[in-house]
């Protein structure tokens, strides 16, 4: 399964998204986005965490929480 996901990411390139609530909009088609915290590639079909405010994607809940703490835990 991981091999299939990696092949899909290599052939599709990096996407550009506009993050909204509760979904995202694809601005530039691609197979993945990068986690703003770890730099890890996230296949679009596995993307579950992002910030509408910062327009960033996160690989998992821990990365999302880390970014929130770095930002001071503030909501605007």
From TrEMBL:
InterPro entries per UniProt: DUF2093
Protein name from the UniProt record: DUF2093 domain-containing protein
């Amino acid at each position: 399964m991981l091999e299939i996901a990696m092949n899909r990411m290599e052939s599709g390139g990096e996407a550009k998204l506009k993050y909204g609530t509760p979904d995202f909009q694809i601005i530039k088609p691609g197979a993945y986005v990068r986690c703003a915290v770890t730099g890890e590639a996230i296949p679009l079909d596995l993307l579950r965490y992002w910030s509408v405010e910062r327009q960033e994607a996160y690989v998992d809940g821990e990365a999302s929480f880390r970014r929130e703490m770095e930002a001071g835990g503030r909501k605007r």
